[in-house]
Amino acid sequence: MIRELIPYRDFERDEVFACISGLIKSAGQIDESSLAESASWYCDCAAKMAAAAERAGIAGNLWQTWLAMLVAENENPFSLAHERRGPLCGTMREFAMRDFETLFDCLHYDLRSIEEELRLGAAGLLDDFVPMTAGPVSFGRTAGAVIGELAAAMAAADSPAGLYEAAVSFYREHGVGKFGLYSGFRWDAHAREIVPAIPLEDISLSDLIGYEEQKKAVVDNTTAFLDGRPANNVLLYGEGGTGKSSTIKALLNEYAPRGLRMIEVYKHQINDLETILEEIKLRNYKFILFMDDLSFEQFEVEYKFLKAFIEGGIEKRPDNVLIYATSNRRHLMKETWGDRLDKDDDMHESETMQEKMSLVDRFGLLIRYFSPEQKEYLHIVRSLAGEYGVEISDEELELGAIRWELKHGGFSGRSARQYVEFLAGQK
């Protein structure tokens, strides 16, 4: 019996679910006047389900996969409560159990009878889908694989109670919605929403050669954050190409399984930070707001908004959010010789300078990345050459590396990688 949903009411707004469930309800009652239109709707749904399964690289029954996707993505009071591992009893639980009785009937309904009624001439149209590709890969976590596992667990459920348990187990392990399926995000100012960043850069902490002390400081702060212990906002500063941004990206790949999520926010989006915070502050994840290459010119006032955001107002700053930023400037603000000439005109010089430099004080952990010396630079080159399988004598490799850095901005990890990639491309 297909009944109206309550916690999962949003399913009805999904075109595919609304169409298929509607056809199930009207099975055996489709007349000749609506036969062609109903068949067209059904095929439209099949096309949408097949396209989604192809993008995600999920094999199996398309209808069951689609229901699993809806269960995984639907954020409602019931699913969010299980993500937070909060109160698990009450009336909402009874409403959810009622919904899962309906979903169980939908999940196990033999759609071949509808295909026959619609005279499609292809019984089992939605069964045993095989994707052409493995789907887009998100380093360390694949959303398609996660949904595929849920689909298998739901299909194996032999009762509504079993289906209920499959969904609850998924919420407790992965969470719900986009934060349960993905780990890296960016703020889309036009759409006014947080959107997944796919795919993530394939980089790990072990790939970053050198800077062991700096990496340890960042890792220790991040693990304290994930463990619920006090942790600081972090500023990584220093010369370009030294691995500041790569260190932060590698953190996400390393700790996403422990509930770390990262949202990249650009400088011109600082005014949207409060909007972002409203969406994430009650979720059961630890969020790093990542601001890459952060710096401000004299005429830019966004730093005041960022300073106020970090400092907090009347509302307590949530414990599940930190800011990690990178910059080539120690104080984040551009300083010129003209600033010194202005001193004679400033009646409160010390206060003005303190205002300009005070943003950096909001970052409790300041980590400097130095450009490597020649010896360390050549060590990075040799390590990367081995990783890329570059076959060349050490003497020729090092001589080329020194020539390369003279034309490409000096000794840095970025120059080393660009040189080795150039060699690898010549094979």
UniProtKB/TrEMBL annotation:
Domain AAA+ ATPase, first and last residues per copy: 230-351
Which CDD domains does the protein's record reference?
A: AAA
The record's section on SMART domains has:
AAA
Q: Name one Pfam family in it.
A: DUF815
Q: Fetch the InterPro entries from UniProt.
A: AAA+_ATPase (IPR003593), DUF815 (IPR008533), P-loop_NTPase (IPR027417)
Q: What is this protein called?
A: AAA+ ATPase domain-containing protein
Q: Which organism is it from?
A: Cloacibacillus porcorum
